[in-house]
Amino acid sequence: MLDHILSILIFFPALAAVFGFMIQKESMRVYGVAVAAIEFALSLWLWYAFDDNVSGMQFMEHLPLVPSFGINYTLGVDGISLFIIILSAFFTLLGIGSLTDTKKVKYMIITLLFLQMTMAGVFAALDAIVFYTFWELSLVPMLYIIGAWGGPLRIYASIKFFLYTFAGSLVMLVGMLFMAYFYYQATGVWSFALLDWYRLILPESFQLWLFVAFFIGFAIKVPMFPFHTWLPYAHGQAPTIGSVILAAILLKMGTYAFVRFSLPLFPDASAFFMIPIAILAVIMVIYTAMVAYAQKDMKQVVAYSSISHMGIIILGTFALNVEGISGSIFLMLGHGVVAGALFLLVGVIYDRRHTKMMSEFGGLAHVMPRYATIFGIMMMASVGLPLTINFVGEFLSLLGFYQQSHILTLLAGTGIIVGAIYMLAAYKKAFFGEVTNEKNKNLPDINKKELFGLIPLVIVAIWLGIYPKPVLDPINNSVKSIVQLMHNKSTTELAKKRIPNLVKPKVVVIDKTIIEEVH
Amino acid sequence: MEIGLNHYLVLSTILFAIGLVGVMRRKNLLLLFFATEILLNAVNVAFAAISHYYGDLTGQMFAFFVIAIAASEVAVGLGLLIVWYKRHGSIDLDALTTMKG
Amino acid sequence: MEKYLYIALFAPLVSSLFSALFTATPKKLFTGIVASLLIFTSFIASTILLVHILKGGEPIHVTMMTWMATGDLYIPFGFVVDQISVTMMMVVTLVSTVVHVYSIGYMDHDKGFNRFFSWLSAFVFSMMILVMSDNYAGLFIGWEGVGLCSWGLIGFWFHKESATWAANEAFIMNRIADLGMLIGLFLIYWNTGTLQYDGAFTAFHELPAATLTWIGIFLFIGAMGKSAQFPLHTWLADAMEGPTPVSALIHAATMVTAGVYLVIRSHELYSLIPHVGLFIASLGTFVAIFAASMALVNRDMKRIIAYSTLSQLGYMFAAAGLGAYWVALFHLMAHAGFKALLFLGAGNVMHAMHDELDPFKMGGLKKVMKWTWIMMVIGSLALAGVIPFAGFFSKDTILEAAYSGNHMVIYGVLLFTAGLTAFYSFRLVALIFHGEERYKLFGIHPHEAYRFMLWAMSPLLLIAIGAGVLQTPFFDMVEEALNAHEYHIAHGTALIMLVGTQMFVGLAILYAYKKYANSRVTVPDGTSKMENSFMYKLLINQYYIPYAYEEYFVKPYRELSEVFWTKVDLKIVDATVDGIAAIIYGTGEKTRKMQSGNLSTMLTWMVAGLIGLLLLAVVFGLAARYSDEILVFLSALGV
Amino acid sequence: MLAPINISMESLNVMTLAPMLIPVIGALLILVIDVFKGGLHKSLYVTLSLLFLAMDFFSLLDASGVFAKNGTVLGMFDVMLIDGLALLAQFIIVIASMLFIPLALTHKRFHEFSYPEFFALFLFMISGFQFMVATDNIILVFVGLETSSLALYTLIAMHNRDKSFEAAVKYFTMGALAAGLFSFGAMIFYALTGSVEINKIALVLAANGYADIGYVLVGIAFMLAAFAFKLSLIPFHTWAPDVYEGSSAPMAGYMSIVPKIAAFVVAMRFFEFLVHSDIVWLKIVLYAFVVITMTVSNMWALVQTDVKRMLAYSSISHAGFVMGAILIGTTQANSALFLYWVLFAFTNLGAFSMLWISRQKNLPAYQMSDHSYDKFAGMIKTAPVAALIMGLFMLSLAGVPPFALFWGKLYLISSAVTSGYTVLAFIMALNSAIAGYYYLKLVVYMFMKEPVMGNDGNMYGANATLALKTIIGIAAIGTIFAFVAINPLLEFITAFVYNSGY
User: Which of D326, D291, D284 is nearest to D424 (CA)?
Assistant: First the structure.
């Protein structure tokens, strides 16, 4: 069974979703939780069986799909994808478990299970076309979730979400086809297999264009400034569960894809574009944090904060060294947990008051102390307090990028300031002060169902903040091999300089140039 | 003056152009069909001439087929025209605009 | 010994978690007692460790587990108990034990009693991590942890707008500095390959001075935030919104001294870059007089003490900057004692006066609150540096250090500040405890604090009185660790200095008493000549710095955010995306009329298409036929 | 005295003619049956048609076996040409027809199906298409084209509504013009080369090195116009939306597939050698056709309010997209054309069939037209399965993987990439994104809106019978599980195309 565990992880929820149509409405929730729990257990088993010391792919599966065109159903996980898969199963479980009573709950659960299939698929795929398939397919359930259960602007938001990402990924598809063609030219064989592509060393000029093509697809998904405007709408209109999954997992597809595709395939281009992308990332960090500060809607604050944090992830990814990339991957998990939890939390209050406007609240800490506590913990995790999950990622990402550019890291580092500003301001508006609004006087505190979703997230957020080792070690191993691969593949001076060689004997080299730059 | 191939071809082209203008300008469905017949017959003239020029029968064969097809086209076209006339009492083209956009 | 290390470290955590269990329930007295006991346990363990170190035992160094490890980076949870950290541990645990016990009384009637102890113990835990960590990353954990607890405790009465505002201000200001610290950490890592103190310190010797300077500057920026040095000082005065025990523990004795601790801890770095040290000393000196000047006229009891804290922190930085690390540490220790004492005394007064803070509305409290009066006076004497109280020894040594280093400006300013300190301290004492009983106008019936609260303050009293005797043993202990040396000034000079200083201080005290301890003092109503003078306005408005921050940073930031959102994000970035979609859609909408449904038009389109193709064909055909001629023609044109 | 003509039956190679003859025989049989006994139920004719189409299919299988063994086969005085293209196109034609004809078995009565002539004409039309694709001779192409077209006009008109007549008249008139253009173009090539066989034309033109390039271009212009009409390339497309709207839904779906593949094959035969002889003009013109057709028709599709008309524009766009294959002209591109069209056949027929089963006899007040978007509002609530299937077809048309059409797009864009048409590849990709909007619009209506008052969802299956459901089921399965079939299909198509020399 372990040989096919990835396929099982992918298709079990889909199959369960199809069977779900037969289930009577009232029993659906239990069924959903059961399926998601099994899925989560499977993903944990995957972790258990995962060999931490192997840096390459594990649990590989291979099935020819269109062999004449080089498309194969190839799956595998390494330290980079493993935890995102687990996280996706985790969130599906939490999401279904804490699902509030909504209309058409049956369809919602079926949709979520389909979504889980696509998420597992994206992160397990090692073939570009399979990856692309799940990548696109993931849009469909999310489209439905936003469009069918969303707020008043839901249709605009869902279409914008779909078309924007769809357009971007089509450009990426062209890039993939080029990549396959170059591989074909080099070897005479068609292949979309990622591991084959890794072996291909492209001339820099090709790399640059391909990098841009892939970049557009990924950047829209992340979403990077200035391609981010679909996200506030999507989050603003989506139901709680939609926002949770969107923020926790779907956005990570973009950053994951950067690590999986852009870096190892185009090391020279990555080094070349490092600074421009870092500038974009810095803009994301500061600009969206400021926009978040201006928001009146609690959910929009969290939505913009997601973009801001994604900026740090991007920065870490393009640090091109082990510290930065490991940090960015860890921050993907961290941000997933934290942003997911924050959206769940906003959902809690939305369920009670059917508004997310902060001006409607105030003094909630009096009436809902437990809620305020959990919100506070997650807020602190979001602003990156040490010993919470986000800090590890942010610290490593920034640390990594510091090697590349001091001034940009300093600017991106202001994220910890501006992040605190909007978060604390929002928290103050909603939770502190006297209860001024009569409607808030008798709000019930958080209930069991909601705690089911939140407590595990709190535990994870703190546990991985204190002891990230079990997660960081496998990530580190895999990242090391990717960085080494990049270094070996790189051809330009610039890339050789920016991407460290890990093989060299370990001595503390004092890089004189760093000091020169500081001046 | 000797009539050569080119004269036939020019004639054919002029006829064809006349047909095209007719196709564009005619508002009466029946006359529109005539214009399309002119188009086809213009081609027939040219085919016959070229066929003679090459001493090859293929062109004439083509012309025959064109004639046959033109005939069946007229049959179908008139059929449609009659039904339309029965329903609407008019064969004016400008009435045929229920679908657009 | 490791056992005691862990006890000292984790007892506060246990305490915090235990109290946290009851946050949602009404007041439970036992949470306060249990918390106090656990903190006391921590104190005992620290004492055992201190004894171990005093006996000349090896510093204890443990590595609990890995925290982060990736690439070449390896950060463990490692803790070290050496001469420096054990001093800090003693300070932290002692003051916190006192404050915990005191708080049982002070927070008696508060709804959030249990929550308070949870936060307070969490703070102690963070502080212990900060001082005990064996690496910069661990220090940063504690650093941020105390920031968090400070946020929670300043904003403890979260129904008050001013309290939450101050909490956020403190957190954000600290974050600004933390960024500097973070950058310092990055610099250390990328230049030395490690964040462990010992590894980094060894490597520092190999580094070029420029790098070291940058590291020193960035670390000091971090220290500036936490220790509220100019220009990041505004939060400290506002932080007085928190409960008074909090001010005593966090904003006087421990957290604000973390910056000093950082500099002392990194003395191996700063001793390599004396120019940065001089800058630190200068800034410290400036802050000393700057804060003291603001304390002169302030009408908020707690704020006055807060400014004095600020001023004393300036002293510490001055000492540390001049290389007198042990003096700085000693002053830190002594200051923790008497300043906490002052704050707790002020807490008693507040309790008695129903949270009234304006000393002008008090007066004559000596009669009702005898013990508090005694303690406050002793605390103030210690603060003013009157012989033989604690402040005398520590402060005098700072002056000696400045003098012997030939930093006469620093020396002069610090000396002058000592006079100011004496003045404002006794202005406060005089206003509160002497003179008319002005509080009666406001219908308040003051009472002395609980007896056990006074008892709880007694250890601090002892320190304030007798810390001087500790100077020599302390010097012996840290001599090696801090490269310490005594400051030898010619005997005669020293005597003149001593007497002069004491006289100066004594005069200042007397002046304060004369001016404020009489019956003519009234509650100021903004009409007196002094209140309308420029200097008074400048000082009472804190040099207009908070106002400037509000006007030139906060407001523009808010407005810019608004502009970014409504103008840039919605009107430019998003509108571009929607605009592209609208253009595509609009083109379709506009051109759909092409499909008029009229057969003639349709046929015309076809013919037009044909003609278009034919035209193209003719053009291309001609071009192809006459391509040679065209080429000749074009070349003639010079194309 | 004329010498007796001696022709051996073997040299005639009747086998080459068999696939076309079978439907003709079937059509005649249906007419004969009607002569002897009128008023028979349509199911008889449907079954008979299916039977003959099945026989047609088997004869094609047989022919393809021969082709696989011996390569291209000529027959009937070298007029018939059975090569890979012909076979592939005929396969598509016959399979699509087999999927189409059971759609006549509706629940509601539509009177065209009660006429046996409908089925006879249908079979005639099929043989017309088969003639078109299975020959190299322009005369036969012309005859096949006209046979099928005339039959098609009649079939459209038989739907017997005002709009159908209007559609038929429009289509007919424009078709007549196109026929004139085609014959004129053929005349020019005949004048230039003295031949009406495409390969001979190619040989002669190549032999004299395209001396009269101007005339060749004029000839191409006429031919191109004629094909552009058939393939509904802008600006020769104007008939398409009206005709699709006027004819019944399955007929519209059928029209979007079968006549076009026939035209594509002829265009491929005709233009391929020209493209390969580096006639820049042709490349530019084709490029412009491709880009304008897919982009502009996409824009028009965006603004439609009727689903069928939207699908009409979308079909135009798809045709433009596939026309790219002819422009590119590599083996991969030509294979991609067939692959795309097979997958398109399944998806598009499925989509139109979904419209067909929801066809009402009388329109309720809230509906502007037969298949306005409003009609589908909230379909997920009233008819969830139907909504899911319709959504599936829409996603497939939009090119969302792993549904059928994605693979076609993938392979076609890949062929553009491989032959250096980078910009074209990106234009194709972006057009798919634009197209996403209007397909999504229907999905939005179905899944995210509330049903219009009074819509109880019964109408979505009003016309459904087992036969219709089966067809839709086949189309749906074909659309979902296309990824399984891609590899064999691709190998099969590539082999056939390659062995035909394209």
Answer: D291
User: Which residue range is the domain that position D55 belongs to?
Assistant: 10-499
- Residue B97 included in any domain: no
Distance from CA of D399 to the nearest CA of A (A): 10
- Is A444 inside any structural domain? yes
Does residue C439 contact residue C362 with C-beta atoms inside 8 Å? yes
Mean pLDDT of successive 10-residue stretches along chain A, which has 519 residues: 88 94 89 95 94 88 92 93 94 90 87 94 94 94 92 91 93 94 92 92 91 94 90 92 93 94 93 94 93 92 93 94 94 94 92 88 88 92 91 93 93 92 92 87 87 92 92 92 92 89 61 44
Q: What pLDDT does residue C638 have?
A: 64
Q: Which domain holds residue B15?
A: 9-90
Task: Kindly state whether residue D1 falls inside one of the protein's structural domains.
Answer: no
* Contact B/A (≥3 CB pairs under 8 Å): no
Query: Which residues of D are less than 8 Å from C597 in CB distance?
Result: 242
Tell me the CATH number at B34: 1.10.287.3510
Q: Quick check: is D426 in a domain?
A: yes
B99 belongs to a structural domain:
no
The number of domains in chain A is 1
Percent of chain B with pLDDT over 90: 57
Q: Which two tokens stand for residue A500?
A: 């460290």
Structural domain contains residue B4: no
Structural domains counted in chain D: 1
Chain B residues whose CB is inside 8 A of the D143 CB are 65, 69
- The 3-class secondary structure across C551-593, one letter per residue, is HHHHHHHHHHHHHHHHHHHHHHHHHHHHHHHHHHHHHHHHHHH
- Binary contact (D142, B66; C-beta < 8 A): yes
3-state SS track over A335-385: HHHHHHHHHHHHHHHHHHHCCCEHHHCCCHHHHCHHHHHHHHHHHHHHCCC
- Tokens 């404050």 belong to residue: C99
* Distance in Å, alpha carbon of A380 to nearest chain D alpha carbon: 37
Question: How far is A446 from chain C, CA to nearest CA, in Å?
Answer: 13
pLDDT at A512: 45
Q: By the CB < 8 Å criterion, does C613 face chain D?
A: yes
- Is the C-alpha dihedral spanning A39, A44, A45, A47 positive or negative? positive
What pLDDT does residue A190 have? 93
Cβ density class C515-549: b for 16+ within 10 Å, e for less: ebbeeebeeeeeeeeeeeeeeeeebeebeeebeee
| Global pTM value | 0.93
Whether the CB of D448 is below 8 Å from some CB of chain A: the reply is yes
Q: Is C599 on the interface with B (CB under 8 A)?
A: yes
Examine residue A423 and state whether it is found in any structural domain, yes or no.
yes
How far away is chain D from the Cα of C626, in angstroms, using its nearest Cα?
11
**Which chain C residues are within 8 Å of B20, Cβ to Cβ?**
607, 610
Taking an 8 Å cut-off on Cβ atoms, the answer to whether C588 and D173 are in contact is no
The residues of chain C scoring below 50 in pLDDT are none
Distance CA D139, CA C592 (A): 37
Cβ–Cβ contact C485 with A under 8 A:
no
Contact C617 D303 (CB under 8 A): no
Residue A304 falls inside a structural domain:
yes
The residues near C304 (Cβ < 8 Å, ≥ 6 apart) are: C295, C298, C359, C424, C428
Asked whether C238 and C170 are in contact (CB, 8 A), the reply is yes
**CB–CB contacts below 8 A, A to D:** 96
Q: Which structural domain range is residue A325 located in?
A: 273-467
Q: By CA distance, what is D420's nearest residue in A? A: A178
pLDDT beneath 50, residues of chain B:
none
Cα of B84 to nearest chain C Cα, Å? 14
Report CB contact under 8 Å: A230, C24: no
Q: Establish if D352 belongs to a structural domain.
A: yes
What domain count does chain B have? 1
Tell me the average pLDDT across D32-49: 89
